[in-house]
Write a structure and sequence with these properties.
By secondary structure, this protein is of the alpha/beta class. The chain has a single domain, classed as P-loop containing nucleotide triphosphate hydrolases (Rossmann fold), CATH 3.40.50.300. The chain is built from 10 helices and 8 strands. Strands 3-4-2-5-1-6-7-8 form an 8-stranded mixed beta sheet, with helices on both faces. Helix 1 packs across helix 10. It binds adenosine-5'-triphosphate (ATP) and magnesium ion. The site of adenosine-5'-triphosphate has 19 residues, from helix 1, strand 7 and helix 9. Adenosine-5'-triphosphate binds next to helix 1, strand 7 and helix 9.
Length: 255
């Protein structure tokens, strides 16, 4: 059984940071293959993970649509796409695999290629015990239902009321669209202790469950500024410790 964690939330609230730290924690502490998915078209999860990524699923879609490359007599279209995805898009990293989705499907006659790509990604995903997915800011991808069959959605928020409201809207939309999300939790990021009582009160009113609080971490800022991958953060980093506490709380859900 694959256990899928998706990280959503308002822009700039720490989705990519939390995703990278979770991937790092899982690769060090859990058995089983892990797939990291960058579902944000702005593609920056790979940098936080210290990877070089040359192609995204979106790039393959465009290439296929702009050429007749796939009309090989010896290989089916699906076989060829699968070959490209496994060969050119999936990156084998240290302790996990990585795939970047790239730009989402546009309007027009993309249906068949998209259908094949979805099938290939779904089949690929089945090979993994854990999937950890970074997503685009906001709600658009939820309306597009690109995020499916999620065991845990972690919604990041900072201490602003706007990002708390976005967290609520994301949860409400995911429920109203009947996305297959089993659990929703909020991660308060860059939190200052004195704001916490107010935030907890607000979360209670919104009927949102808090799973963890990540403090402002000077090491995260420094690594980000210097372009150093977050997976190199030392174990004493407060953000690393906070993510470890979050995973501890998730453990009962992981069968
Ligand atoms: N706990 C933290 N302590 C210090 N800095 C942080 C922390 N969390 C995130 N940051 C910084 O905040 C900025 C935004 O974080 P991040 O890129 O993870 O957000 P995001 O939600 O993925 O943004 P986007 O919506 O643009 O994808 C980054 O510069 C990151 O280094
Ligand atoms: Mg991001």
């Amino acid at each position: 059984m694959t256990f899928t964690i998706a990280i959503t939330g308002k822009g700039g609230t720490g989705k990519t940071t939390v995703a990278a730290l979770l991937i790092n924690f899982f690769r060090k502490n859990f058995e089983g293959p892990i797939l990291a998915i960058d579902a944000d078209p702005n593609n920056n999860l790979h940098e936080a993970l210290g990877l070089n990524v040359s192609k995204t699923v979106g790039d393959i879609r465009e290439e296929i649509l702009q050429s007749e490359k796939y009309s090989s007599p010896s290989m089916s279209k699906e076989g060829y796409l699968e070959y490209l995805i496994y060969g050119e898009v999936v990156v084998e990293a240290n302790g996990f695999d990585f795939i970047a989705m790239g730009r989402p499907e546009g309007p027009g006659c993309y249906c068949y290629v998209n259908h094949l790509l979805r099938k290939i990604i779904d089949n690929l995903a089945r090979n993994y015990r854990f999937i950890i997915m970074d997503t685009e800011a906001g709600l658009e991808h939820i309306s597009r239902r690109t995020t499916r069959d999620i065991d845990v959605m972690l919604i990041t928020t900072d201490t602003s009321i706007r990002s708390l409201r976005t967290a609520k809207r994301i949860r409400d939309l995911a429920i109203s669209l009947e996305t297959k999300t089993k659990n929703f939790y909020v991660v308060v990021n860059r939190a200052s202790q004195d704001m916490l009582p107010l935030i907890l009160e607000e979360l209670n009113k919104m009927n949102l469950k808090l799973i963890g609080v990540i403090p402002e971490d000077p090491l995260v800022l420094e690594y980000d500024f210097k372009g150093k991958p977050l997976i190199g953060l030392p174990p004493h980093s407060p953000a690393i410790q906070a993510v470890a506490d979050i995973v501890e709380k998730l453990k009962p859900l992981i069968q």
